[in-house]
Write a structure and sequence with these properties.
By secondary structure, this protein is an alpha+beta fold. It has helices at about 10-25, 35-45, 55-60, 75-85, and strands at about 1-5, 25-30, 65, 75. It has a single domain, classed as Glutaredoxin (3-Layer(aba) Sandwich). The protein contains four helices and four strands, in the order βαβααββα. Strands 2-1-3-4 form a four-stranded mixed sheet, with helices on both faces. Strand 1, helix 1 (about 10-25) and strand 2 (about 25-30) form a beta-alpha-beta unit. The longest helix is centred in the first third of the chain and has 13 residues, at about 10-25. It is globular. It starts with a strand and ends in a 22-residue tail after the last helix.
Length: about 100
């Protein structure tokens, strides 16, 4: 099963969860703002996995981060939805991105 590291305050994470829930895609959600343990778990792989290099360079956090069953990490939740033959649900309203550059989380 997928594990999603994210935050309930992150608009990208909310959109990810909305799509996964709508299509019945099973996942465990780890809210990094819920506890220091959750934050440390996220930071342990964010600090070491090259998939986050671009995020760190542009000042974004790298959320949502999805850990697949094989242990690989992706930041592209949309490809999981579309890879199953589904469409990305439309955004109900535009929310401000949480990145310093205002381009994502």
């Amino acid at each position: 099963m997928l594990t999603i590291y994210g935050s309930s305050m992150c608009p990208d994470c909310v959109a990810c969860k909305k799509n996964f829930d709508f299509y019945g895609i099973k996942y465990d959600f780890v809210d990094i703002n819920e506890s220091l343990k959750n934050l440390k778990a996220f930071l342990s792989f964010r600090d070491n996995d090259p998939v986050f290099d671009e995020c760190k360079e542009n000042g974004s956090i790298g959320l949502p981060a999805l850990v697949k069953e094989d242990g690989s990490i992706t930041l592209d939740w949309e490809s999981i939805v579309t890879g199953k033959g589904y469409y990305i649900l439309p955004e109900e309203e535009q929310k401000e991105a949480c990145g310093i550059d205002r381009k994502g989380c």
